[in-house]
Amino acid sequence: MNVSNINLRRADLLDAKQFAYIKAETYADDRLKSMPDEDNVPEWYNGEWYKGLAVINETEAIRLLENYYCYMILLEETTIGIFWLHHETKDSLSLEDFCILPAYQGQGYGTKVLKLIEELYPNNKIWTLGTPYFCKRNRHLYEKVGYKYVGTASNNTVILYKKCN
Fold first, then answer.
1. Is pLDDT of 44 > 90?
2. CA 127, CA 129: separation in Å to the nearest integer?
3. Contacts of 81 (CB under 8 A, 6+ apart)
4. Which helix H or strand E contains 160, and what residues bound it?
5. What residues are paired with 127 via a beta bridge?
6. Residue 159: is it exposed, middle or buried by C-beta count within 10 angstroms (0-12/13-18/19+)?
7. What is the pLDDT of residue 109?
8. Could you tell me the CA-to-CA distances from 153 to 6, 46, 107, 146 in Å, in that order?
């Protein structure tokens, strides 16, 4: 693993197809690896929205690219992930769809990228994000880099995190 070769690049409309592919591929893998407890399956888990995250949707990618701060995660010249940000408040950014392709997970890239994201916006005071309660790998990563549990949403099925700088 050579995390020093990780870089971020602002995505543009030419990236829409790849952005959509990476998002779908990552969510499809996550559905296989992270399943809810049998007695606590969220209402949304089998719904169209959540299942749709694992489907390549270039129209949705274009919407995100046109309205938010979207980024490509690069390992040297290879795109290995994506994410997007939006303002909650003037001093707060929310991290959404933090996706690293399955072949590159578990190698320290996520930790490095989360640090690089903060370096992109050094004046941002508060970072927020949410992840399903059953996505233990995500939760471990976020807690490892300093995100703190602040509550839940969607009937306690989504864990909310916050990090203050």
1. no
2. 7
3. 22, 26, 72, 73, 98, 99, 100, 101, 104, 109, 113
4. strand 158-164
5. 93, 163
6. buried
7. 97
8. 32, 17, 30, 20
pLDDT at 77 over 60: yes
Take residue 74 and report the two structure tokens written for it.
Answer: 């690069």
Give 151's DSSP letter.
E
Which residue pairs, CB below 8 angstroms and at least 24 apart, start in 122-126? 124/91, 124/92, 124/93, 124/165, 125/91, 125/92, 125/164, 125/165, 126/88, 126/89, 126/91, 126/92, 126/93, 126/162, 126/163, 126/164, 126/165
Phi, psi (deg, nearest 5) at residue 26: -70, -45
Is residue 81 predicted with pLDDT exceeding 60? yes
Quick check: 109 and 137 in contact, CB under 8 A? no
Residue the block writes with tokens 């949403």: 153
Dist CA 113 CA 8 (whole Å): 8
Secondary structure letter of residue 53 according to DSSP: T
- Report pTM: 0.93
